[in-house]
Amino acid sequence: MIENEAAPAIHVAPSPHIRDTKGDTRKMMMDVILGLLPMVIVAVYLFRLYAVKQMCICLVSCLAFEWLFVKMRQRSGTLKDCSAVVTGIILALSLPGSAPWFVGVIASAVAMGIGKIIFGGLGMNIFNPAMVGRAFVMIAFAQLMGAGSYENLTGLVDGVSGATPLSALKFNHLATPVPDLFWGMTNGSIGETSTAACLAGGLFLVLRRAASWQIPLGILATVLVLAGIGDIAGSHSGRLLIHHLFGGALMFGAFFIATDPVTSPLTSKGKWVFGIGTGFLIMVIRFFSGYPEGVMFAVLMMNAVTPLINRWTNPQPMGEA
Amino acid sequence: MGLLSLKGFPGTGSFRHGVHPPDNKSLSAESKVEVMETPDTLTLPLLQHLGVPCKPVVKAGQMVRYGEMIGKGEAFVSASLHSPVAGKIKKSIMVTLPNGRHLPAMSVQTQGEQVSPHKIWADMKSKDWPRDCISIYDPFTIVKIIHDSGIVGLGGAAFPTHVKVTPNDTRMIDTLMINGCECEPYLTCDYRLMKEAPRAIVAGALLTGRAVSAREIVICVEDNKPDAVKKLKEATEQTVIKIAVLKTKYPQGSEKQLIKAVIGLEIPLGGLPSDVGVAMSNVGTMATVARGVIKESPLTHRVISVSGRGIKHPKNLFVPIGISMGEVIDYCGGLTQDAARVVAGGPMMGFSFSNFSTPVTKGTSGITVLSHDEISNEKETACVRCGRCVDACPMNLVPTRLALAARYNNPSIARQYHIQACFECGCCTYVCPAKINLVQLIRTGKKLVASGAK
Lengths: 321, 454
Ligand code: SF4
Ligand code: SF4
Description:
Chain A is mainly alpha-helical. Chain A has helices spanning about 25-70, 85-95, 100-115, 130-140, 140-145, 145-150, 165-170, 180-185, 195-205, 215-235, 240-245, 250-255, 270-290, 295-310. Helix content of chain B is about 25%, strand content about 20%.
């Protein structure tokens, strides 16, 4: 028999005995962090120290608040899953570079506290934490987060000229040159300006399956159609369409915010509904509200209906019906 | 090759969802079936199949011949038990099978003149299994012999075969599907059998087809086993049997998924293959049927795989039922220092065990010994609601929701989301990045639902 002294220790555990080694929560978060790198680089290139400062503030505060809140709830440490790092970076990238330090700190506190931990931590939150944080400071510090905060950066980088492309178009009927829009030589929240960077990082995410492809495709297709209609109706000869597609936080939001698995639907059908709904709301806000930009509110609203979408798109088991 | 060979079948060669674990078949795929010598003692649990245990019909101290019935399956869903050796019955004992069942078992001490297992295996491999004179057997006789031979499904579930083939007035069988998919990683016993004894499989399939009066007989093999397909093609020439080559995917070998893949039909929830006119059996079972009907030998031996990175010499073996797992493992050189988990069956659905005196039963398709690197010890984190489990579930369920319902003791949600449709294939757990053992939770949930809790 095998039971000699050097016998290996045999574990008994329930099936399945093998796991997919490619994916775990941490690796998934690491992929998101890697996917965010292009935006981080562009942000630092464009906004220099403003960007570095903003990212450091949000990162440190998100980690600190996560640690603190988890501690207060007497749960085991959750910093290792890296989800707080992701929230920190996304939050920073969604803020204007000129926002003062306490804006980042407060946004982080709200993101981790109200956005995530009070729901029970990673996986339990209903709303995208970074967007909760951002929405809070946007309302609380309307002055600091308004159009003015973007215009303050005028002249910082060549090509960055005053208002964000979408507000320039909406309020002053000024069109930003298309290459500037695509490469990101414009004003805006520090991570959202470059369509090219968002596409590169976003495609990486989708290929790594860290984000679903249905959501970004649903959003972009809907925006394309609705902005296309608006463009033709108003005879903008393509300018409006390009602005809506490449301007504002659309690309960043489609790939990095709306795709947050925790706050988006489970099934592929549900993801389509979520994507199309988000795209639709973005255009409604952009066309009809006072805000030139609608990604954040659109995502938050769709987060709220995600449980419903999950119910509507609950799959039929095989053999049913 | 590929899916073109599925021409003539309404299915697409695949089913929805599923996973692609590394199949690791190369460890043992090229090892020819070796015959193990008859051991001194065999331990034969009275329940080696799904259903009701059989009743002992011999007493301690009594001598038995090879193939003599020692336990009788009296209930309809039960299977008789036969001695794989000539010998003396010893006092009955209790054993615990890897699936956790604690059962009385008979043991037989080998004594006297034996039928050589080499001869039995040589018979199985021989080319002269008839293919044309099958019609001399009357369908009822075939069913009766299958019943008397104690034949159960050798694919793993060990469902008594006579139950599937007994004529039923209300449900006609249109197609007999022979399952040679062997989709569990590591296992290669069916593959070896298809390669080495295709004629026995074909004879058994023809007999079984006759018993159920099937209009069509299809042998289903995954496209990662081209050699087996080739051998089966040769063996089925000039017969009515068709071969369907399917996409390699786990769990392609599961009944419902296989029916969907080949004939495009879905078994209603809670239903059986016969609800869509299908009878299904595994290739090993077919070879056993041939042996039972044509050679009048009951089920006493089977082919098993012993594989994995934790075993010194992976092999395919022809062994008597009742031999201990330990003897088999020793025969394969024993465990490596790296061995971490020993599983009866494959790594996706098999049961791990640590007591090596536990016997090989009719349903043991193999022993998989996994090394430390192969098993996952990662800590569970929170569900990130990524939906990967939903995308993997071949039954199209929402595993994360079923697991939560179980964890929070909510049988009504579990029922509402069809927890009973889960057949515990493990795909959801396999893919979950949060390393949640969804299947384990779902099992608990099923028990909760079965207990009638509200
Ligand atoms: S795969 Fe795991 S983490 Fe993803 S939704 Fe299912 S249970 Fe949750
Ligand atoms: S829920 Fe059940 S049937 Fe679906 S993947 Fe998980 S174990 Fe398989």
